[in-house]
Amino acid sequence: MPAPGTRGLHNLGTALVIAAASALAVTGNWWWLIAMPLAGYGFAWSAHLFVEKNRPATFTYPWWSLRSDIRMFLLCATGRLGPHLQAAGVGAGGATRA
Question: What pTM does this model have?
Fold first, then answer.
């Protein structure tokens, strides 16, 4: 389970993807399609590289990675992420319980 900093960067990237998709729908400017993966993957990969210091699952499990990122965003946005973190044994600071 990612640390809070990693979760925050993942959620920021996902929010920017949603914003870019909305901008595409409103403006019809297809350049927003380029912004979507740059924002989503850019923030997520930066989080793994600089915060977690590990390799993103995107390279091995691309669809599972995308699904998990969206699920984490939705759980966080609806205030339901806490119980999932507790069930996984992750404390508020991102550390796993012994």
Answer: 0.83
